[in-house]
Each structure stands twice: as structure tokens, then as C-alpha cells.
Amino acid sequence: MVGLETETIIFIVLLILTLIAGILLFFFLFIVITDCLKRSFKTDTEKALWILFIFIAPIFGALLYYFLIKKKDKKALKLLKSLANKLSKKKN
Asked: Would you list the domain boundaries of the chain?
């Protein structure tokens, strides 16, 4: 780029990276919050506390929710599928 100083180029690159990170964070928060709203918890209070925690500490709350709640479902789903496959093989 002709005529641009190094500081300006660094600023533009950092600005673009920050915008990309912000967009990714927004979509991650959207996914986590919609999952939390759709999920059935043991109590409504538990759901409300998770949503409140995600709004108070967005990055930390969303990461905690993802790894403590949402990730468990994926492991449980894999386990159920493998058990179903084993049972169907035994029947044949």
C-alpha cells in the first residue's frame, strides 16, 4: 500500500481482526442462549440462572455453559447411538 505508514496498516489489520472476533463471539453467544432457552432444565430457576450468568459474564458464562451443559449432550448422544448400534447388531 503506497503512502500508508506501518502504524496505519497495523491498525487496520487489528481493526479487521477485532471485527471478526466480535462477529464470531456474537454468533457463539446467540447459539448458547438459544440452546439455553430451548433446553429443559430440572427447574426454571436453573435456566434463569444460566441465562443471567451468560448475560453478566458473556464470554466466561457462555464457555462454561458450552462445556458443562451442551458438550455433555453430545457425549450422551454418541453413547446412545453406539448402544443402539450394538443392540441392533445383537438382534441380527
From this structure: 6-91
